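User: My advisor, Dr. K., asked me to get a structural model of this assembly before our group meeting. I'm new to this, so sorry if the format is off. These are the inputs:
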Amino acid sequence: MQVITLNKLDLELYHEKLDNGLDVYIIPKANINNAYVTFNTKFGSKHQEFVPIDGKKMIKVPDGVAHFLEHKLFEQEDGTNPFAFYAEHGADANANTSQHKTTYLFSSSTDLEKNLEFLLDFVQKPYFTDENVEKEKGIIEQEIKMYQDDPFFTLYEKSIYNSICKHPIKIPIIGTVESINSITKEDLYACYNTFYHPSNMFLVITGNVNPEIILSVIKNNQNKKEFMTLKSKIKIKDYNEPDKVAKTKEKISMNIAIPKVSSTYKINISNISDIPRRDIIEYILLYFEMKFSSTSEFNDKLKEMHIINTNLDYMLVDVDTHILIIILAETEKPQKLLSMLESEINEFNVDLETFERKKKNIISSYIYMSDSIFRINNWVTSMIVREGEIIADEYQEIRNLSFDDLKKIIDNINFDNHNYVVINPKK
Amino acid sequence: MQVITLNKLDLELYHEKLDNGLDVYIIPKANINNAYVTFNTKFGSKHQEFVPIDGKKMIKVPDGVAHFLEHKLFEQEDGTNPFAFYAEHGADANANTSQHKTTYLFSSSTDLEKNLEFLLDFVQKPYFTDENVEKEKGIIEQEIKMYQDDPFFTLYEKSIYNSICKHPIKIPIIGTVESINSITKEDLYACYNTFYHPSNMFLVITGNVNPEIILSVIKNNQNKKEFMTLKSKIKIKDYNEPDKVAKTKEKISMNIAIPKVSSTYKINISNISDIPRRDIIEYILLYFEMKFSSTSEFNDKLKEMHIINTNLDYMLVDVDTHILIIILAETEKPQKLLSMLESEINEFNVDLETFERKKKNIISSYIYMSDSIFRINNWVTSMIVREGEIIADEYQEIRNLSFDDLKKIIDNINFDNHNYVVINPKK
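Assistant: The format is fine. Below is the predicted structure of the whole assembly, which you can bring to the meeting.
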């Protein structure tokens, strides 16, 4: 096993790639009572056009397949219900699908080995039939309808949809009623066989564990199973996403009390400078944090002017060559807020002192992460998905961020590619 | 059915008390796709000494019984698993136990009537055996151990434990390993028969529903069932909680990276003035919000002095005659922070303008609530538990809060009864 010391975290990360390609990451943390295990595949809603493991030609699967597949793995041929199994073994289990990955997880303070083997087994034992695929459609349709009632969720989805021209991140993770209804068990098996191949998956185990023992449990389990032969890297379609947004504005009505607004900036990060991609994202996030967080001067000003009552919020969406920054707010004066946001974003009125304070914040959260086996696990998981590797000294990387580079990067960004969505109360 | 119009929310609340004593509250919201249903009993961890429905003498049940009972209602005699039932019927189900109440809930956009009947049925069909009670102990023991690893949870529990002398709110909701192991099925039935009597429970239904139809479904369901006769109001022990805290300071060590601190103020609200209890609590919360929230000057000052990196946090615990306000922070300088908090709290340096802005905030959250059937439901539920009745015009009540009354109340509060807990990293 490879052992990596994580600087300033007082933790060691054990890594081994098994013969079948599965990457195993273990971070032991002593003196605590439980363990947290995630089993991840690099398969999310954005992986829509690809060459299947046993095919030669690119295929396109219906919107929402990754999430549908996640649901269906909880149905086992022998009738076992994974949630019931974990409830009986003192563990909490769950799963989630994002644009970039699907994660199956449990946490428990007892029966770790049994629970871990069960996780590997149920995720690696697909059981899709015409009947059970058909039955799931109704369940997911109801889930889709429930999301549709949430105004902030609607803002988020519309913001992405209107910003992106070609990239499949455009599409809601859960799909649409129409797309879901077109899913077949053949679609599910094509995705499953390709993206749930061990070489496209990884396990992250954090908590009170012995790396050697855990690894041998995993190896024994994996050695008993057979997988298809992967001839080459999975081929996924490339999208030549333009810089322009697909639609600049949209107004909708919903059954709400206070209007809600999103303002989205689309930024091409593939041609900004020779600084590493993750640093560019970190700089842009710092910039937005300084300018639009709840502690920013601009946020205070909006409150004093009674344009907002609750704080601004913002989030980042990673679109490979681009990123989207979505600013969200509730306001009785949507147009006034939008024009103020636009002029504010183009003014580089941030100072070194605030920059250093925000950096200190990030460093503190980084160190604080080591207090929680959940946060450590999420940190490893998203790093593997985003970077494909472990950054052992993120502490030093954050420390090295400089105000000069921030200025250079922000100067190079064109904030002209943006759009907005307004949700008004229904009359 | 009684119909109450909720001022400024554009909503109507339908209420009916059934013959068996069950209160039903329905708030229809059109143009959305789903409904949210909570089935609540006014039974939480604080209800520890009481006269059982079929007894004459006060009994004392082991710590953690309410939460244990919540777990056990999910085990049905016929082997049905409520989670599995709801998953198959397109619904999400859950339950939670607080110091004051236990809630069983589901949300769904389909099969509302079937899901609602199932909720009434599984909660009203207890099945406790010596064997299944014994088996549950191991599961809850593991849950207790998992909580013990969370530093903020530990801070919260220690803060309450050290602040309170007699009131059973002192005790962790989940109990201790020892107390859990002493629970018998007789304890569970004593609590169940007393506190799960329909007259001590209430249903809250929010969403796209027709009040008349839903009410008739509930009535039909309840009319088929028999309950014990309740001769009088449930008798619960009174605790004469003193104003002093039980312990003024405690330092512990955990496996963490950054020290964490809590500072807790114990305030007797039973003798402050003739203003209604809920207004007193609102004023005290406003005061703490102005002084210690992330947007307060004091929070900014602590950041500039590099005493904190992440914002202060605070929470309120309702202890009947008293309230606790717990301020939480991460800091490398615990003693400095604690002394600054102490001098800050005693200085009435808040102004009318900030007061009015914070009031606007509360009014905005109040109106915003009507955008979500979850928030409306929680609002009704906590009002029933706290106030025992619906406040139809909370909007006007918030508007009427005055800066003069704030000053009068704060002047009457003695902030001397306080304590702190510091968690240091293990060496």
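One thing worth pointing out at the meeting: The longest strand of chain A covers residues 260-268.

User: Perfect, thanks a lot.
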